Amino acid sequence: MSKIYSSKTLDELDEIRVKLFGKKGLITAEFSKIKDLKADEKKEFAQKLNEKKETLNSAILEKKHELENLKLQERMKKEAIDVTLFDEGLNIGALHPITITMDKIIEYFLSQNFSIENGPLIEDDFHNFEALNLPKYHPARDMQDTFYTSDNNLLRTHTSPVQIRTMQNEKPPIRMIAPGAVFRRDFDLTHTPMFHQIEGLVVEKGNKVNFANLKYILENFLRYMFGDVKVRFRPSFFPFTEPSAEVDISCIFCKGHGCRVCSNTGWLEVLGSGVVDPNVFKFVGYEDVSGYAFGLGVERFAMLLHGVPDLRSLFEGDIRLLEQFK
Ligand code: PHE
Q1: How far is the CA of 237 from the centre of ligand 1 (A)?
Q2: What does each C-alpha distance from 15 to 12, 18, 32, 242 come to in angstroms?
Q3: How many whole angstroms from 24 Cα to the centroid of ligand 1?
Q4: What is the pLDDT of residue 143?
Q5: Which cofactor does it need (predicted)?
Q6: How do the domains of the chain map onto residue ranges?
Q7: Largest alpha-carbon pair distance within the chain?
């Protein structure tokens, strides 16, 4: 009896059961003695033996339940999953450097009350060129190596068509940026056939908006992005702005002294901009308004901010490069 109570495992308990009730078990042997007893002894012996059998049996059953319960609890303890536990070895992905840069730029313009507008990637000739004061056969179309999908449709070469679409759908005042992918037939160290731009457009009624407003917002924006840099507005040409300026910052690598990245000029070109050409307003039916616009290449910003020497590496999906942006 005490062996039953002290058994520690189900196997041990079963061994005891076999020893008692198995073919050669102690109790089994007792039962086989009955037939040799005298008739008057038989009854009492059998009764006592049966009682003994009952007691042992129920003790074994009870112990069995107890051990089964214990086993279950141990298993639950061992196999428990703590869902709040964090596996430090877990490999979490990171945002792509283009996304990081894009988000930072967008964040700035949202803080300056710009809205975000979108347009289609496949554009028509009117929105990508014509309405931006770039008539057919105008030589300035050569500036952009276009992928045509049909005579009249193309992969947008810049985000400027979103300016046109927004002005067509809304009334001034407008204060918008348009981030997104653009496409050009170009492929080398600093060009990929697909890249990203962020366009900006501000339009107000009357002649409230001028070059000074453009200069103010872009200078602040570039210092937000690059820290303490000099900003230079260099006269340039875009068909849709007049006057136009390309914007340079003092080289962030050599502080303007001249190095390989800035081709020894001390300056890095980062933006195109200008005062909206009156012809553009005519195409969208705006009268008595003034505005400025700018456009920038996100990849260029990402390369400068993160010191990426080859633009193409940003699109190769090499995990060793991407992991550095965690
Ligand atoms: N769309 C021009 C480009 O892709 C950039 C630009 C935008 C210039 C707006 C001036 C104003 O090169």
Answers
A1: 10
A2: 5, 5, 21, 100
A3: 99
A4: 67
A5: Mg(2+)
A6: 1-79, 97-325
A7: 131
